[in-house]
Amino acid sequence: TLGMGALLAVAMSSSTEQAITVERLKKLGSGFALWAFVVLVALYAFKPGTSLQFIFLDITTATVFTWIVAVAANGSGGIVGKTLQFPPFVYIGKISYGIYLYHIFVSGLAEWISHRLGLVLPTSALIQFIIFAPISIALASVSWFVFERPVTRLRRRLSYRPETVEENDWRITRSSEVAA
Predict the structure, then answer these.
(1) What is the 3-state secondary structure (H, E, C) of the chain?
(2) Which residues contact 35 (CB under 8 A, 6 or more apart)?
(3) By the 8 A CB rule, do 28 and 63 touch?
(4) How many other CB atoms are found less than 10 A from the CB of residue 70?
(5) Tens of pLDDT, residues 5-63
């Protein structure tokens, strides 16, 4: 998914050819990938571990979420645009980096705690999501208010002025000159 995000960033630059690529991505995301994603998630929820999921779930998920980001970045209207403007979704977008950072720790911590208490975690991915998602969101919210927002506010107060370097200040040396 990181690679798809990078491709989207390149594709959304100003060239006409790349803008056409973004339009194609939107059509792909809203068409085949969206339906494939729904089918694969349903398969995963009810019968985890099928070879179809192993082969296609990651790329389909990446395509769908890249499509959502492309739609959001363009400020598109329609049902997707209106859905993305829903205040709880806007808030999730604000704290999404924290969710990304903490979600893996939540599942690991839950496994550790359940093992220590002699409990067994549910194996259903859907049930695990229902349990772990609110915990990850809560941790990300705390992180946003305690760390991210104060750092963002501090960054706004600090000014950044890149140093200008004269072209003559740069010296190019060859490795053979350095060794001599």
Answers:
(1) CHHHHHHHHHHCCCCHHHHHHHHHHHHHHHHHHHHHHHHHHHHHHHCCCCHHHHHHHHHHHHHHHHHHHHHHHCCCCHHHHHHHCCHHHHHHHHCHHHHHHHHHHHHHHHHHHHHHHCCCCCCCHHHHHHHHHHHHHHHHHHHHHHHHHHHHHHHHHCCCCCCCCCHHHCCCCCHHHHHC
(2) none
(3) yes
(4) 18
(5) 777 777 776 565 556 666 666 666 566 666 777 777 777 676 666 666 666 667 777 77
Rounded Cα gap, residues 149 and 143, in angstroms: 9
Q: Which amino acid is at 54?
A: F
pTM of this prediction?
A: 0.61
**Amino acid code (one letter) for 22:** V
Place of tokens 């209106």: 82
